[in-house]
Amino acid sequence: MRGVVKRLDPIHDQLVIHAFGGGDIRIAFDARTQFLPEDTHTHLTSIPLGSVVSVDTVIDGGKLFARSVRTGSSTAAELNGQVLRYDATKSKLTLRDPISPEGISLHITSSTTVVNQGQPASPQAFAPGMLVRVWFSPAQNAASKVEILAERGNSFTFEGRIVSVDLRSHVLALSNDSDQSIRELAIGSLDAGSLGLLKEGADVNIQAEFDGDRYNVRTVTLARRNP
Question: Which of 54, 173, 214, 219 could form a disulfide with 163 if both were Cys (CB 3.0 to 4.6 A apart)?
Answer without folding.
Answer: 173
